[in-house]
Each structure stands twice: as C-alpha cells, then as structure tokens.
Amino acid sequence: MQATVKWVDGAQFLGESGSGHSVVMDGPADHGGRNTGIRPMEMLLLGLGGCSSFDVVSILQKTRQQVTDCRVEITAERADAVPAVFTRIHLHFVVSGTELKDKQVARAVELSATKYCSASIMLEGAGVKITHDYEISDKT
Fold it and tell me: Which InterPro entries has this protein been placed in (predicted)?
C-alpha cells in the first residue's frame, strides 16, 4: 500500500492514495489553514469508521442478513497534552434492514473489533481505548 501527501500552501495538503484517489487536508485559520479540507486526525477517525463498517456489512451479508443501511457514529477524546493522541474512541453502529437478527449484528460488530478491523486493532495496540455498540433499525 502506498500514498503520497503533497504540501499545497499554508496548512493545506493534498493526499493521494495508491489507488489514485485524492483528498484535501487543511487546518483551521488560527494554525495557518483556510479550513478547505478535513483535518488529518479526522481522517484517522474516518478510516477507522470505514474499516469497521466495511467489516460489519460484509459479515452480515455473508450470514444472509438483509442489510439496507449501515452507519457508524464515532466520538473520540484526545489527550490535553502534545501530542494530542486519541485516548478513547466509541463507535456506535446503526444497522438497518429487514428481519435483522440481534445476535448476528452483535457478532459482526464483535468480529470487526476483535479480528478483522486493522485500524481498530492497530489503534488499540497503541493504547487507545475503543468501545463499540449498535442499534438495529428494522424495516419490516
């Protein structure tokens, strides 16, 4: 896996993934930015949410659950000192579908957290306390 991050100006950077996708990152005005893009630490949270959500949906589909939507609401706390690392992250999954089984959704969230989500496992290994929960929105 490869990526490139190029400085544009001020606190603005352009990141390009090895697959050819780009994203603008920028800082707030009080740190030399213009607020034209996402903050780098926000990118980490989005990566974690994307990785976990991918796992949850994939696992549910493999168990023949009729998933119609999945979103994860992420809240995080950072240290007050420099470096302002994440200390706690909570992922709240909202899974929608038809006749979803609570046991299957719980297992998908657990498997993502403990076995499949590389981002989650990596952050936990660095000392971040990550918690998960879920709710089911049944569309029957």
Answer: KH_dom-like_a/b, OsmC/Ohr_fam, OsmC/Ohrsf
Nearest one of 5, 11, 37 to 24, comparing CA atoms? 37
Q: Model confidence over 83-128: pLDDT tens digits? A: 999 999 999 999 999 999 999 999 999 999 999 999 999 999 999 9
Side chain identity, residue 83: P
Percent pLDDT > 90 in the chain is 94
Residue 35: CB atoms within 10 Å? 13
Does pTM surpass 0.90?
yes
The span from the CA of 42 to the CA of 45, in Å, is: 5
Residues 64 and 8 occupy one common structural domain: no
Report yes or no: 56 and 91 within 8 Å, Cβ to Cβ. no
Question: For 11-15, what is the mean pLDDT?
Answer: 95
The residue to which tokens 């498997």 are assigned: 111
Q: How many helices (H) and strands (E) does the chain have?
A: 3, 6
> Residue 23 belongs to a domain with what CATH number?
2.20.25
**What residues make up the domain containing 52?**
40-138
